[in-house]
UniProtKB/TrEMBL annotation:
Signal peptide: none annotated. PANTHER family: PTHR46101, SERINE DECARBOXYLASE. Its cofactor is pyridoxal 5'-phosphate. The keyword Mitochondrion does not apply. This is Uncharacterized protein. It comes from the Eukaryota.
Length: 408
Protein backbone atom coordinates (compact mmCIF):
# COMPACT_ATOMS: atom_id res chain seq x y z
CA UNK A 1 0.00 0.00 0.00
CA UNK A 2 1.58 3.31 -1.03
CA UNK A 3 2.11 5.96 1.63
CA UNK A 4 0.88 9.43 0.71
CA UNK A 5 2.86 12.19 2.40
CA UNK A 6 2.06 15.89 2.45
CA UNK A 7 4.00 18.06 0.07
CA UNK A 8 7.40 19.12 1.37
CA UNK A 9 7.30 22.21 3.53
CA UNK A 10 10.11 24.67 4.21
CA UNK A 11 9.68 28.13 5.66
CA UNK A 12 12.43 30.64 6.31
CA UNK A 13 11.42 34.00 7.71
CA UNK A 14 14.03 36.69 8.22
CA UNK A 15 13.40 39.97 9.98
CA UNK A 16 16.35 41.67 11.55
CA UNK A 17 18.12 39.03 13.61
CA UNK A 18 15.17 36.63 13.47
CA UNK A 19 15.67 33.53 11.37
CA UNK A 20 13.17 30.70 11.71
CA UNK A 21 13.80 27.65 9.57
CA UNK A 22 11.23 24.90 9.66
CA UNK A 23 11.92 21.50 8.15
CA UNK A 24 9.40 18.71 7.93
CA UNK A 25 10.25 15.28 9.27
CA UNK A 26 8.52 12.27 7.81
CA UNK A 27 6.51 10.45 10.44
CA UNK A 28 5.25 6.91 10.71
CA UNK A 29 2.34 5.88 8.57
CA UNK A 30 -0.90 6.61 10.36
CA UNK A 31 -3.67 4.02 10.58
CA UNK A 32 -6.38 4.39 7.95
CA UNK A 33 -9.28 6.70 8.80
CA UNK A 34 -12.78 6.89 7.40
CA UNK A 35 -12.39 6.42 3.66
CA UNK A 36 -15.50 8.22 2.49
CA UNK A 37 -18.44 10.13 3.85
CA UNK A 38 -20.75 9.00 1.08
CA UNK A 39 -20.87 12.44 -0.55
CA UNK A 40 -19.41 13.78 -3.75
CA UNK A 41 -17.35 16.92 -4.03
CA UNK A 42 -16.98 18.07 -7.63
CA UNK A 43 -17.54 14.55 -8.89
CA UNK A 44 -15.17 12.81 -6.45
CA UNK A 45 -15.47 11.15 -3.06
CA UNK A 46 -13.90 12.80 -0.06
CA UNK A 47 -11.18 10.23 0.47
CA UNK A 48 -9.87 11.09 3.89
CA UNK A 49 -7.36 8.26 3.87
CA UNK A 50 -5.54 10.01 1.05
CA UNK A 51 -4.97 13.35 2.72
CA UNK A 52 -3.89 12.36 6.21
CA UNK A 53 -0.87 14.25 7.54
CA UNK A 54 2.09 11.92 7.97
CA UNK A 55 4.49 14.74 8.70
CA UNK A 56 5.20 17.11 11.52
CA UNK A 57 7.83 19.59 12.58
CA UNK A 58 10.42 18.62 15.15
CA UNK A 59 10.87 20.30 18.52
CA UNK A 60 14.64 20.65 18.84
CA UNK A 61 16.34 20.81 22.24
CA UNK A 62 18.45 24.00 22.40
CA UNK A 63 22.17 24.03 23.16
CA UNK A 64 22.74 22.66 26.66
CA UNK A 65 25.08 25.58 27.43
CA UNK A 66 22.55 28.18 26.34
CA UNK A 67 21.19 29.61 29.57
CA UNK A 68 19.27 32.48 28.09
CA UNK A 69 17.86 33.08 24.66
CA UNK A 70 16.91 36.54 23.48
CA UNK A 71 13.16 36.87 23.07
CA UNK A 72 12.16 37.18 19.45
CA UNK A 73 8.82 37.77 17.81
CA UNK A 74 7.61 35.25 15.25
CA UNK A 75 7.22 37.38 12.14
CA UNK A 76 4.83 34.93 10.51
CA UNK A 77 2.38 35.22 13.41
CA UNK A 78 1.46 38.82 12.63
CA UNK A 79 1.54 38.72 8.82
CA UNK A 80 -0.76 35.83 7.92
CA UNK A 81 -4.34 34.82 8.65
CA UNK A 82 -3.79 31.24 9.82
CA UNK A 83 -6.76 28.96 10.45
CA UNK A 84 -6.26 25.28 11.28
CA UNK A 85 -9.73 24.17 10.24
CA UNK A 86 -11.02 20.65 10.71
CA UNK A 87 -8.91 17.79 12.04
CA UNK A 88 -5.25 18.39 13.01
CA UNK A 89 -4.21 15.18 11.25
CA UNK A 90 -6.26 15.56 8.06
CA UNK A 91 -5.73 18.17 5.34
CA UNK A 92 -8.57 20.37 4.14
CA UNK A 93 -9.16 22.64 1.18
CA UNK A 94 -7.90 25.69 3.13
CA UNK A 95 -4.24 26.20 2.37
CA UNK A 96 -3.08 28.78 4.95
CA UNK A 97 -2.59 26.52 7.94
CA UNK A 98 0.16 25.33 10.26
CA UNK A 99 -0.98 21.82 11.12
CA UNK A 100 2.64 20.67 11.18
CA UNK A 101 3.25 22.87 14.21
CA UNK A 102 0.01 21.70 15.77
CA UNK A 103 0.94 18.05 15.46
CA UNK A 104 4.42 18.74 16.79
CA UNK A 105 3.01 20.35 19.94
CA UNK A 106 0.12 18.17 20.64
CA UNK A 107 -16.95 15.88 24.98
CA UNK A 108 -17.47 13.90 27.58
CA UNK A 109 -21.18 14.64 26.86
CA UNK A 110 -21.26 12.34 23.84
CA UNK A 111 -19.75 9.45 25.80
CA UNK A 112 -22.35 9.39 28.58
CA UNK A 113 -25.42 11.48 27.62
CA UNK A 114 -27.16 10.64 30.90
CA UNK A 115 -24.03 10.68 33.07
CA UNK A 116 -23.59 12.65 36.28
CA UNK A 117 -20.68 15.09 36.52
CA UNK A 118 -18.69 14.86 39.77
CA UNK A 119 -16.34 17.73 40.62
CA UNK A 120 -14.82 18.87 43.88
CA UNK A 121 -15.99 22.13 45.40
CA UNK A 122 -12.53 23.58 44.73
CA UNK A 123 -12.84 22.98 40.97
CA UNK A 124 -12.78 25.97 38.65
CA UNK A 125 -16.15 27.70 38.40
CA UNK A 126 -16.23 27.10 34.64
CA UNK A 127 -16.70 23.35 35.28
CA UNK A 128 -20.05 24.02 36.92
CA UNK A 129 -20.90 26.63 34.29
CA UNK A 130 -20.34 24.01 31.59
CA UNK A 131 -22.61 21.60 33.44
CA UNK A 132 -25.39 24.20 33.40
CA UNK A 133 -24.87 24.91 29.71
CA UNK A 134 -25.08 21.22 28.82
CA UNK A 135 -27.95 20.71 31.29
CA UNK A 136 -25.96 18.03 33.06
CA UNK A 137 -26.69 16.77 36.53
CA UNK A 138 -23.74 17.84 38.66
CA UNK A 139 -22.55 16.69 42.09
CA UNK A 140 -20.22 18.91 44.12
CA UNK A 141 -17.89 16.72 46.15
CA UNK A 142 -16.45 17.93 49.46
CA UNK A 143 -12.74 18.66 49.75
CA UNK A 144 -10.06 18.28 52.37
CA UNK A 145 -8.44 21.33 53.93
CA UNK A 146 -5.72 21.13 51.31
CA UNK A 147 -8.32 21.44 48.53
CA UNK A 148 -8.03 17.82 47.37
CA UNK A 149 -11.18 15.83 46.67
CA UNK A 150 -12.60 14.01 49.71
CA UNK A 151 -12.68 10.36 48.65
CA UNK A 152 -15.10 9.41 51.46
CA UNK A 153 -17.72 11.95 50.33
CA UNK A 154 -17.04 11.00 46.71
CA UNK A 155 -17.88 7.35 47.42
CA UNK A 156 -21.08 8.31 49.27
CA UNK A 157 -22.28 10.30 46.26
CA UNK A 158 -21.30 7.53 43.83
CA UNK A 159 -23.27 4.94 45.78
CA UNK A 160 -26.32 7.22 45.85
CA UNK A 161 -26.28 7.38 42.03
CA UNK A 162 -25.14 3.88 41.13
CA UNK A 163 -27.67 3.63 38.29
CA UNK A 164 -26.02 6.39 36.21
CA UNK A 165 -22.58 6.64 34.60
CA UNK A 166 -20.02 8.85 36.33
CA UNK A 167 -18.09 11.69 34.64
CA UNK A 168 -15.33 12.88 36.96
CA UNK A 169 -13.40 16.13 36.83
CA UNK A 170 -9.98 15.49 38.38
CA UNK A 171 -8.02 18.62 39.24
CA UNK A 172 -4.31 18.65 38.52
CA UNK A 173 -3.89 21.79 40.58
CA UNK A 174 -7.00 23.59 41.87
CA UNK A 175 -7.54 27.23 41.00
CA UNK A 176 -6.97 28.78 44.42
CA UNK A 177 -5.00 26.29 46.55
CA UNK A 178 -3.14 24.41 43.84
CA UNK A 179 -4.31 21.05 45.18
CA UNK A 180 -3.96 17.90 43.08
CA UNK A 181 -6.63 15.20 43.06
CA UNK A 182 -4.81 11.88 42.94
CA UNK A 183 -6.21 9.92 39.95
CA UNK A 184 -5.39 6.67 41.75
CA UNK A 185 -7.59 7.69 44.69
CA UNK A 186 -10.44 8.55 42.32
CA UNK A 187 -10.08 5.26 40.41
CA UNK A 188 -9.96 3.29 43.66
CA UNK A 189 -13.17 4.96 44.87
CA UNK A 190 -14.89 4.06 41.58
CA UNK A 191 -13.76 0.45 41.78
CA UNK A 192 -14.78 0.12 45.44
CA UNK A 193 -18.27 1.34 44.55
CA UNK A 194 -18.46 -1.26 41.73
CA UNK A 195 -18.23 1.12 38.78
CA UNK A 196 -16.70 -0.75 35.85
CA UNK A 197 -14.42 0.99 33.36
CA UNK A 198 -17.23 1.33 30.84
CA UNK A 199 -19.36 3.16 33.43
CA UNK A 200 -17.10 6.14 34.10
CA UNK A 201 -15.10 8.80 32.28
CA UNK A 202 -12.23 10.67 33.94
CA UNK A 203 -11.19 14.11 32.71
CA UNK A 204 -7.97 15.57 34.17
CA UNK A 205 -7.90 19.37 34.27
CA UNK A 206 -4.20 20.25 34.04
CA UNK A 207 -4.58 24.02 33.42
CA UNK A 208 -1.36 25.42 34.95
CA UNK A 209 0.23 22.61 36.94
CA UNK A 210 -0.31 19.99 34.26
CA UNK A 211 2.71 21.35 32.37
CA UNK A 212 4.81 21.79 35.53
CA UNK A 213 4.21 18.34 36.99
CA UNK A 214 6.39 16.37 34.52
CA UNK A 215 9.43 18.31 35.74
CA UNK A 216 8.95 17.41 39.42
CA UNK A 217 10.22 13.91 40.15
CA UNK A 218 8.05 13.27 43.21
CA UNK A 219 4.82 14.60 41.68
CA UNK A 220 1.86 12.42 40.79
CA UNK A 221 1.97 10.93 37.32
CA UNK A 222 -0.98 11.22 34.94
CA UNK A 223 -0.86 8.52 32.29
CA UNK A 224 -3.20 7.00 29.73
CA UNK A 225 -2.05 3.64 31.07
CA UNK A 226 -4.65 4.39 33.71
CA UNK A 227 -8.37 4.38 32.80
CA UNK A 228 -8.62 8.11 32.18
CA UNK A 229 -10.42 9.61 29.19
CA UNK A 230 -8.69 12.93 28.58
CA UNK A 231 -6.20 15.48 29.89
CA UNK A 232 -6.06 19.20 29.17
CA UNK A 233 -3.45 21.88 29.82
CA UNK A 234 -3.30 25.59 29.06
CA UNK A 235 -0.76 27.00 26.65
CA UNK A 236 -1.06 30.59 27.89
CA UNK A 237 -0.12 29.89 31.50
CA UNK A 238 3.14 28.03 32.05
CA UNK A 239 4.36 28.12 28.44
CA UNK A 240 3.26 31.75 28.12
CA UNK A 241 1.47 31.81 24.78
CA UNK A 242 0.32 35.44 24.22
CA UNK A 243 -3.28 34.42 23.61
CA UNK A 244 -5.56 32.15 25.71
CA UNK A 245 -5.39 28.58 24.44
CA UNK A 246 -5.61 24.99 25.57
CA UNK A 247 -4.36 21.58 24.53
CA UNK A 248 -6.63 18.55 24.91
CA UNK A 249 -5.33 15.00 24.75
CA UNK A 250 -7.84 12.17 24.58
CA UNK A 251 -8.24 8.63 23.31
CA UNK A 252 -8.84 7.99 19.63
CA UNK A 253 -12.11 6.21 20.37
CA UNK A 254 -13.55 9.40 21.84
CA UNK A 255 -12.35 11.48 18.89
CA UNK A 256 -13.96 9.08 16.44
CA UNK A 257 -17.23 9.24 18.38
CA UNK A 258 -17.40 13.02 17.82
CA UNK A 259 -15.77 13.29 14.39
CA UNK A 260 -17.69 13.88 11.21
CA UNK A 261 -16.60 14.24 7.61
CA UNK A 262 -17.13 17.79 6.36
CA UNK A 263 -17.60 17.94 2.59
CA UNK A 264 -17.31 21.72 2.74
CA UNK A 265 -13.76 21.40 4.13
CA UNK A 266 -12.80 18.22 2.29
CA UNK A 267 -11.61 17.11 5.72
CA UNK A 268 -12.68 15.51 8.94
CA UNK A 269 -13.71 17.72 11.86
CA UNK A 270 -13.40 16.62 15.48
CA UNK A 271 -14.04 20.02 17.08
CA UNK A 272 -17.09 22.01 18.15
CA UNK A 273 -16.24 25.27 16.39
CA UNK A 274 -14.49 23.79 13.31
CA UNK A 275 -11.87 26.57 13.39
CA UNK A 276 -8.76 26.66 15.56
CA UNK A 277 -6.28 29.45 16.05
CA UNK A 278 -3.44 28.76 13.62
CA UNK A 279 -1.04 31.11 15.43
CA UNK A 280 -1.13 29.19 18.72
CA UNK A 281 0.87 26.14 17.53
CA UNK A 282 3.69 28.28 16.16
CA UNK A 283 4.01 30.20 19.43
CA UNK A 284 4.03 26.94 21.40
CA UNK A 285 6.48 25.31 18.99
CA UNK A 286 8.73 28.36 19.14
CA UNK A 287 8.79 28.40 22.96
CA UNK A 288 9.45 24.67 23.20
CA UNK A 289 12.41 25.05 20.86
CA UNK A 290 13.67 28.17 22.59
CA UNK A 291 13.63 26.74 26.11
CA UNK A 292 13.82 22.99 25.84
CA UNK A 293 13.31 20.41 28.57
CA UNK A 294 16.18 21.43 30.82
CA UNK A 295 15.23 25.11 30.99
CA UNK A 296 11.59 24.26 31.69
CA UNK A 297 12.75 21.95 34.47
CA UNK A 298 15.00 24.63 35.93
CA UNK A 299 12.22 27.23 35.88
CA UNK A 300 9.78 24.86 37.60
CA UNK A 301 12.24 24.14 40.39
CA UNK A 302 13.03 27.82 40.86
CA UNK A 303 9.32 28.65 41.13
CA UNK A 304 8.69 25.91 43.70
CA UNK A 305 11.75 27.00 45.69
CA UNK A 306 10.63 30.64 45.64
CA UNK A 307 7.12 29.63 46.71
CA UNK A 308 8.60 27.90 49.76
CA UNK A 309 10.67 30.98 50.43
CA UNK A 310 7.56 33.19 50.52
CA UNK A 311 5.62 30.71 52.66
CA UNK A 312 8.45 30.53 55.18
CA UNK A 313 8.71 34.34 55.31
CA UNK A 314 4.98 34.63 56.01
CA UNK A 315 5.06 32.00 58.75
CA UNK A 316 8.11 33.58 60.38
CA UNK A 317 6.26 36.90 60.50
CA UNK A 318 3.22 35.29 62.13
CA UNK A 319 1.02 35.41 59.04
CA UNK A 320 -1.14 32.35 58.46
CA UNK A 321 -0.12 30.64 55.24
CA UNK A 322 -0.19 27.28 53.49
CA UNK A 323 1.48 25.69 50.49
CA UNK A 324 0.41 22.42 48.95
CA UNK A 325 2.98 19.86 47.96
CA UNK A 326 4.62 20.61 44.59
CA UNK A 327 2.56 23.77 44.20
CA UNK A 328 3.60 27.32 43.35
CA UNK A 329 0.48 28.86 44.93
CA UNK A 330 1.08 30.36 48.36
CA UNK A 331 -2.25 30.76 50.18
CA UNK A 332 -2.74 33.20 53.05
CA UNK A 333 -5.30 35.36 54.83
CA UNK A 334 -7.14 37.78 52.58
CA UNK A 335 -5.75 41.32 52.98
CA UNK A 336 -8.19 43.79 54.50
CA UNK A 337 -7.20 46.59 52.12
CA UNK A 338 -8.66 46.23 48.62
CA UNK A 339 -6.14 48.74 47.29
CA UNK A 340 -3.40 46.38 48.38
CA UNK A 341 -5.19 43.49 46.65
CA UNK A 342 -5.50 45.44 43.41
CA UNK A 343 -1.93 46.69 43.55
CA UNK A 344 -0.56 43.14 43.75
CA UNK A 345 -3.31 41.61 41.59
CA UNK A 346 -3.96 39.03 44.27
CA UNK A 347 -6.88 36.73 43.40
CA UNK A 348 -9.23 36.30 46.38
CA UNK A 349 -11.88 33.76 47.29
CA UNK A 350 -13.82 34.17 50.51
CA UNK A 351 -11.38 34.92 53.32
CA UNK A 352 -8.25 33.68 51.56
CA UNK A 353 -6.04 34.84 48.73
CA UNK A 354 -2.97 33.51 46.99
CA UNK A 355 0.20 34.48 45.20
CA UNK A 356 1.15 32.38 42.18
CA UNK A 357 4.93 32.25 41.91
CA UNK A 358 5.73 32.17 38.18
CA UNK A 359 9.12 32.47 36.43
CA UNK A 360 8.88 36.28 36.31
CA UNK A 361 8.37 36.49 40.09
CA UNK A 362 11.83 36.95 41.55
CA UNK A 363 13.00 36.80 45.16
CA UNK A 364 13.38 40.59 45.06
CA UNK A 365 9.76 40.99 43.99
CA UNK A 366 8.62 38.60 46.71
CA UNK A 367 10.60 40.60 49.27
CA UNK A 368 8.90 43.81 48.16
CA UNK A 369 5.50 42.15 48.48
CA UNK A 370 6.31 40.64 51.86
CA UNK A 371 7.68 43.88 53.33
CA UNK A 372 4.60 45.81 52.25
CA UNK A 373 2.26 43.10 53.54
CA UNK A 374 3.93 43.06 56.98
CA UNK A 375 3.75 46.84 57.14
CA UNK A 376 0.05 46.78 56.28
CA UNK A 377 -0.66 43.98 58.77
CA UNK A 378 0.64 46.19 61.57
CA UNK A 379 -2.21 48.62 60.95
CA UNK A 380 -4.86 46.04 59.98
CA UNK A 381 -4.49 43.90 63.08
CA UNK A 382 -2.75 46.36 65.39
CA UNK A 383 0.10 44.01 66.19
CA UNK A 384 3.83 44.09 66.13
CA UNK A 385 6.00 41.00 66.45
CA UNK A 386 2.92 39.02 67.46
CA UNK A 387 3.38 35.31 67.89
CA UNK A 388 1.76 32.99 65.36
CA UNK A 389 -0.57 31.63 68.02
CA UNK A 390 -1.88 35.09 68.94
CA UNK A 391 -2.56 35.93 65.29
CA UNK A 392 -4.36 32.66 64.75
CA UNK A 393 -6.59 33.35 67.73
CA UNK A 394 -7.48 36.76 66.34
CA UNK A 395 -8.18 35.49 62.83
CA UNK A 396 -9.90 32.29 63.88
CA UNK A 397 -9.32 28.80 62.52
CA UNK A 398 -9.84 29.86 58.93
CA UNK A 399 -6.40 29.04 57.59
CA UNK A 400 -4.78 25.72 58.37
CA UNK A 401 -1.12 25.07 57.80
CA UNK A 402 -0.08 22.41 55.32
CA UNK A 403 3.71 22.28 55.83
CA UNK A 404 4.58 20.10 52.86
CA UNK A 405 8.17 19.98 51.69
CA UNK A 406 8.83 19.61 47.99
CA UNK A 407 11.67 17.34 46.94
CA UNK A 408 13.58 18.59 43.93
Amino acid sequence: MPIAFSSSFFLSVVKGDLDISLILVLGEQLPPVLVSNGHKNGGRDIMLGGNVHNTCLTVIEPDANEEFTEDKEAYVASHFYINNVGDPFVESNYGVHLRQFEVAVFDWREVFPDGILYASRDSHYSVFKAARMYKMECMKVDTLVSGEIDSADFKVKLLANKDKPAIINVNIGTTVKGAVDDPEVVIKALEETRFTHDQFYIYCDGALFGLMMPFVKCALKVSFKKPIGSVSVYGHKWIGCPMPCGILMTRLEHINALSSNAEYLVSRDATIMENRNGHVPIFLWYTLNKKGYKRFQKEVHICLRNAHYLKNCLLAAGISAMLNENSDMVVFERPLDEKFVRRWQSACQGNITHIVVMPNVTIEKLDDFFDELVEKCSSWYQWENSSLLVLQERLGARIVFVPYITEF
